[in-house]
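Bit of a strange request maybe. I'm writing a small parser for structure token strings and I need a real example to test against, not something I typed by hand. Could someone generate the tokens for this chain?
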Amino acid sequence: MTIIQLEYLISVAKYGSFSSAAVHCNVTQPSLSTQIKNLEEQLGVTLFTRNTKSIELTDIGRGVIERSKDAIAQFYAINEYVKDMRGEVSGTLRIAAIPTIAPYLLHRFISDFVERYPQVNLVVKEMVTTDITAALASGELDVGIAAAGFFDTDAVVETPLFDDEFYLYAAKDNEILNQEQISIIELDVNKLVLLEDGHCLRTQILDLCNQKSPLSSNLKLEGGSLETIMRVVDVTGGITILPSMAVDFLSQERKESSVRRFKERNSTKRNITLVTSKNFIKKGLLIALKEVILNSIK
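Reply from user aminoacidic:
Good idea to test on real output. This should exercise your parser:
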């Protein structure tokens, strides 16, 4: 049994065919098929059921897949361990940030990270939380930058970064801005303009507003970005809730005219975290990433 065989096995299971797996692994299909067949013979079991239309993992094949992932992680962990002991920060780091973080944070630390660690190949994407979860599980992603509390902690490890306070944003002529104190749980949620389903910020806001039933309003507009949301609020007289990192990019005039803190400021916030799979082995890269991000927001 070899690491190559285990990697081929995982690839076939992931892509659902020997031909697609061969393309991904950059080998010929006969070569890949032979390696899988040899693995089955060595183990004395059938890992895949094959027919003319599809292939499927057997029950024992699923168990072998899970253990193969652990074995591969441990194999490559040896090299990462040696790098850590030498104080070497190198390799490829694939990170993704959710859309309510990416536009406000990535540019703050990317240049510094690349400059400080020239031996690291940095790959950066923007993904929603569910896609980050899937990419971490499949091994396509190393680190997610997201809001805490939306991940299965049995499958991932969350490394806390910082807290991001929530603020009310309203059209500058909205009477709510005249209140001395604004409570988030007293907001009329039907006047909220929110991100569309799939964004964890939407879920957090509705939870903070203690909203249990469907929203009812004659305007049902759900945006895909906070910039769109703010522009809609400006022209409709509605309200929304913004994280601090988005507020930081508003002009001072706009902050004074449209932004207010909530009375419950200690509880109206989200926790930003680095998310990695349980099998993540690039500990040195994670430490370096965390340090650079925290330096960028001081």
